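Run log, item B.
One chain of 78 residues. Sequence copied directly from the ordering sheet:
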Amino acid sequence: MGGYRFGKLTPYLSYSKLDGNIAQHTESAGVRWDAFRSADIKLQIDRINPQGTGLLVNAKPAFRGPVTVGAIAIDFVF
């Protein structure tokens, strides 16, 4: 995983790989914005490439990847 801070924005990239009986690899890209003094907002997109069903739960027998997943999160301290 790597990223670089530009003022209040931190874009980042990540790559992960799992080998063995259950195998998959994932590429991720995201950005963190320090929106307030005690809160930040993160947006992330993941591209999951499982071999078979990988770590996906309840995948149908005919499932064939890859899968794209998006997430938005707000982290805060109070």
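Observations after the first pass:
- The beta strands are 2-3, 9-18, 23-36, 39-51, 67-76.
- The chain has no helices and five strands.
Flagged for discussion on Thursday.
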